């Protein structure tokens, strides 16, 4: 498989680079290392020990190493270590060479009080651009945008536009989209390099630009930004403020990172664990997972103390205890399903408009239907198995009620969390199933008690 | 929020378009409709009823409507309806105008026996390109690639390359990357439009192309392709066969769709429900969820019949039944956590190399540690609550064992499924927790019986 073969190559390349470093072969190292694609440079660098990395800092210019770090910035775990082992001036120069959004991402990995030091050591213009972006709130459009874009004026020709493009091709993060602004810096049009290339050189930008620009607001949630980019199949999105002033652009490589980030956090939320848990150390893994386990353990204690109220009933009819896990388990499964659907629907921008009560009603009905089918099934099975259709009726009816309540909770709880401003994805599957254990047990034993005292 | 406001615009635009159609105002309709961004055209079209859509087919040429369908193809639910309501020749012409990969996606929504009809009605060259791609297996690189790319020769100048680019700018899916092939059609280099633009017009392609091309194989899994694209921050990836012959390219807009698809299927798998469930009809929703619920119900019956073997024990010590759900619930939560981590790790290409036994051992240890902490906690709590530390010990020890086993199952089961060629994501959280109900109950009652017969 592509990936395997490529992993294999990286290992070979790393060995080769290590040898060149050990033999202090500056010339061959530079030729070999710089010939690799940036991502592979990053992988090799990551595989090296600190000693070799320090050697690299003396073999490569800040400019050369900055290209590699444009890719490496995604590897948040180690950025701090890398930056702090560098000479501060060298690090500052490297950050200065990087695209603003990536430089900001990296600086944010450092202790807050360290950041000013690097900004001071940095080229003034770069430092200014970084200061402009670094204050935007995390996970907003502003925090992932870059200010290195190409802007044009409506009253210039394609020829002059192409001249600007060529001059900016090196520093701009993308030259494939250019943005037309007026004298107030407001965004008035967009133009792709494709449009420029196929147009006559004397045509005015005004005449070929599209003035229906799809934009995102600087405060928009990054998830919504990703949604727009994916819907429109754009390679970059312009970011504006409330006065339609162009502040920066978000390029598709950052969009892909956001999509990955969002997907991972949804997935993690559903399982109540950080699935990007990179550690192979069981102690650290356990440390990350225990908070949820212990919290839910105490929620589970609630269920236990509830059951202990029915100890008398159980010692009379021990058979009841046979079906507790069946009811709690099935209701938990139904609740998890409805939770996952609800979290996804909430995450979709269209839902913003849609009223939640409709969603809840639907889950309620879905629960009733699933509950009815499951309840009748289990009623028959138990009735036949235990030759006792009253027992079957108890289990079946409890199942129906428990599933309905679980479905309701599965949609209600994330919606409430969303309304209260929490991330709905925090309402995890384990939380819902532990919660529905409580309700299911309550339902089951109340119904059982009622039946037994009235029909037996 | 951006999305809201934009949703709002779509509604207004739809109304305007409906009016223009009702007043049979061909000219204004064309001017208005075609002035919208393609995604908005698609949204409006989607909001219209069949009658209005039929009218649109008579107002817009196949070429004009094809642009909109380049975006609409992602909306798989309705494609078949749209295609079948069109005149067959019109539909064939439209498909012929589309990028091959999108045309293939759309054709694949039709009943298989319908496809040849459209291919026959289509322009021969287009039909040939589609036939080349349509046979690639679903979810492989081949199935998402397009054949509309720009290829150059190493021994031509930048000037002639730019001429080719301009001539192909309209039909190529991207002109921002160009691929250099030799006379055997093998891929020998890659070149970005950025490189071309900043180079002197007389330079030879050979001298500015990069000959270290990152490629994917036509049979690679689409998830791995997305991984490569995201890692390298590429806007397009070349697809080759085993002889390094260039077959097509995959553009970043398709990569984003794959990322979304993969994330959704992982998420759905974990919750044992299709979260893209678009229906608002409770019956359909229940129909989609019930198969899992019922399957797991019968797995849960296993747990019940297991418990019924211990009815005697329970009627003696009803207190035991108080903690069943606590142990099964907590173990289920731990199992879900370890499942999610395992599925994610399996999904990462790097894991291919890494041996799974290490992963399983790690989960075993993680389980032991979490189990130890949770077990001791609950032992103390129960000991104090019930003033009975033997009971506490029974619960605590059972908890330790149950969590360890659940963690083991959480990693072992998806790994086995992967080894057996199934999608590991199918081992859902509900499945793992239902499964661990069984093992937990077995552990709990065996331990309880042992303790009670030996210490009381």
Walkthrough of the structure:
Chains A, B: One of its GO terms (cellular component) is plasma membrane. Two copies of one chain form a homodimer. With 456 residues, chain A is mostly helical. In chain A, helix 15 links the parallel strand 4 (216-217) and strand 5. The radius of gyration of chain A is 30 Å and the shape is elongated. In chain A, the strands form two sheets. Chain A has a three-stranded mixed sheet with strand order 1-2-3. A three-stranded mixed sheet of chain A has the order 4-5-6. The longest helix of chain A has 31 residues, at 389-419. Chain A has three domains: 2-139, MgtE N-terminal fold (Alpha Horseshoe); 151-262, CBS-domain, CATH 3.10.580; 282-455, SLC41 divalent cation transporters, integral membrane domain (Tetracycline Repressor, domain 2). In chain A, helix 15 (222-232) crosses helix 16. The N and C termini of chain A lie far apart (66 Å). The first copy, chain A, has helices at residues 2-22, 26-35, 38-47, 50-59, 62-72, 76-85, 88-97, 100-107, 115-121, 124-134, 141-144, 158-168, 193-198, 205-208, 222-232, 252-271, 282-308, 311-316, 324-347, 349-353, 356-385, 389-419, 429-455; strands at 150-152, 177-181, 187-192, 216-217, 236-240, 246-251. The mean pLDDT of chain A is 88. At the A-B interface, helix 1, helix 12, helix 13, strand 4 and helix 15 of A face helix 1, helix 12, helix 13, strand 4 and helix 15 of B.
């Amino acid at each position: 498989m592509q990936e395997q073969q490529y992993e294999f190559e990286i290992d070979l390349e790393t060995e080769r680079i290590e040898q060149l470093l050990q033999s202090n072969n500056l010339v061959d190292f530079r030729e070999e290392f710089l010939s690799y694609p940036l991502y592979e440079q990053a992988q090799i660098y990551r595989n090296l020990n600190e000693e070799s990395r320090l050697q690299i800092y003396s073999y490569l210019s800040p400019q050369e190493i900055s290209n590699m770090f444009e890719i490496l910035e995604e590897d948040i775990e180690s950025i701090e270590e890398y930056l702090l082992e560098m000479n501060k001036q060298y690090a500052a120069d490297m950050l200065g060479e990087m695209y603003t959004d990536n430089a900001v991402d990296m600086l944010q990995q450092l202790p807050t009080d360290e950041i000013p030091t690097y900004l001071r050591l940095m080229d003034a213009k770069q430092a200014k651009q970084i200061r402009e972006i670094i204050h935007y709130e995390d996970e907003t459009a502003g925090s992932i945008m870059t200010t290195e874009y190409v802007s044009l004026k409506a009253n210039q020709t394609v020829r002059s536009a192409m001249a600007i493009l060529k001059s900016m091709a090196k520093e701009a993060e993308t030259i494939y989209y250019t943005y037309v602004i007026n004298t107030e810096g407001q965004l008035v049009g967009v133009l792709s390099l494709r449009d420029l290339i196929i147009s006559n050189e004397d045509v005015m930008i005004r005449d070929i630009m599209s003035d229906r620009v799809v934009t995102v607001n600087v405060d928009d949630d990054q998830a919504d930004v990703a949604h727009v980019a994916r819907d429109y199949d754009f390679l970059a999105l312009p970011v504006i403020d409330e006065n339609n002033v162009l502040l920066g652009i978000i390029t598709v490589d950052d969009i892909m990172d956001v999509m990955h980030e969002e997907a991972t956090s949804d997935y993690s939320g559903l399982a109540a664990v950080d699935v990007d848990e990179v550690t192979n150390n069981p102690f650290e893994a356990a440390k990350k997972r225990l908070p949820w386990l212990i919290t839910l353990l105490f929620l589970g204690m609630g269920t236990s103390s509830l059951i202990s109220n029915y100890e008398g009933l159980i010692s009379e009819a021990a058979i009841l205890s046979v079906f507790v896990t069946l009811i709690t388990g099935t209701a938990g499964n139904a609740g998890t399903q409805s939770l996952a659907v609800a979290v996804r629907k909430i995450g979709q921008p269209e839902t913003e408009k849609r009223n939640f009560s409709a969603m809840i009603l639907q889950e309620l009905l879905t629960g009733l239907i699933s509950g009815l089918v499951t309840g009748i099934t289990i009623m028959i099975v138990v009735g036949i198995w235990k030759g006792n259709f009253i027992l079957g009726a108890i289990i079946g009816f409890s199942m129906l009620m428990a599933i309905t309540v679980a479905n309701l909770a599965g949609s209600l709880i994330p919606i409430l969390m969303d309304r209260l401003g929490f991330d709905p994805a925090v309402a995890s599957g384990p939380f819902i199933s532990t919660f529905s254990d409580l309700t299911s047990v309550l339902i089951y034993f109340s119904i059982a008690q009622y039946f037994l005292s009235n029909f037996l």
